[in-house]
Amino acid sequence: MNLEQMKYIVEVAKESSITKAADKLHLSPSAISQSITQLEKEFGVTIFTRSRQGTIPTTDGKFIVSKAYEILKKMQELHEELADKQNAKKHVLKVGCAPALMYIVYDAFLLFHEQFPETNVMIREIDQDHILEEMKNGHIDIGLSPFTDYEVSNLQHEKGVDYELLYTGHVCVCAGKKSSLYYKDFLTPDELSDEKLVIYNSKGGMSFNDKYVKNEQILFSSNNIEVMRSAILDGHAFSFVFNFTFKNNADVKNGNLAIIPFKQPDLIYQDFWTLYPITKGLSVEAKEFKDKVKYLLDQ
Question: Dihedrals φ, ψ of 160, to 5°?
Answer without folding.
Answer: 70, 30
